Amino acid sequence: MVRSSPTETVKAVASWPDHLLTLAEWSALPEERGCCRELVDGVLLVAPQPPRHQLAVWRLAAQLEPALPRRVAALARVELVIEESHPPTVRVPDVLVVGGAAGAAHATRVRPSDVLAAIEIVSPGSRRTDRVMKFAEYAEGGIERYWLLETDGSVRLTTFALTDGRYEPTGEYTGQVTLELDGMALPLDLDALTALRTTA
């Protein structure tokens, strides 16, 4: 295990923003590997991304992509601008199914109106955020579908649809499933999202 030295810790604390960030300041931040970084009401939030979580993110996007038509895309780790005015809120969902011009261009920043489904993979550091805060934010933004994946133990998927401004559960799934989204059939192998590779 690699530990930060006291000097590195002090440097990190000293460089942490001491004010509510603007969207331009957020955009100028340097990349950070192995972390999920989001902006909530101008406040910078950073959470670690365990390897198992990262693996599930990229495998999920790879499973979804072949079933999507040309102007729809499964995008992993792109910015979703919930609120542009100051102080801004920018979420970075694990996977988004995006349509229209944003889907055709594989955009790196999208708006709720571009999103057909938002998918979050729940991790120990994101339970309250995924189940409460994003649940409310995505519904308020008008995103029609919200899917939550639980990967502790067996992989489980719970799907929600927006009804009268609130998400209502529409199904719980394990194993191999085929989901319907805007007339598209999306086959998924949930167990394969975190399965270890076997050697021959």
Q: How many independent structural domains?
A: 1
Given the structure, what is the number of helices? 5
Main sheet?
Answer: 6 strands, mixed
Specify the CATH class: Alpha Beta
Order of SSEs: HHEEHEEEEHEEHEEEEE
What form results from the Cα inertia axes? globular
Write the layout of secondary structure elements.
Elements (H helix, E strand, L loop, with lengths): L5 H9 L8 H6 L6 E6 L2 E6 L2 H14 L8 E4 L2 E5 L5 E3 L3 E4 L1 H6 L3 E2 L4 E8 L4 H14 L4 E6 L5 E8 L2 E8 L2 E6 L2 E6 L11
Parallel strand pairs: 4-7, 8-9
Antiparallel strand pairs: 1-2, 3-6, 4-5, 6-8, 9-10, 10-11, 12-13
Summary tags:
about 200 residues, alpha+beta, tt1808, chain A, 6-stranded mixed sheet, 3-stranded mixed sheet, 5 helices, 13 strands, disordered N terminus
Overview in brief:
By secondary structure, the protein is α+β, with helices and mostly antiparallel strands.
Describe the protein in words.
The structure is a single chain. The protein is an alpha+beta fold. It is built from five helices and 13 strands. 24% of the residues lie in helices and 36% in strands.
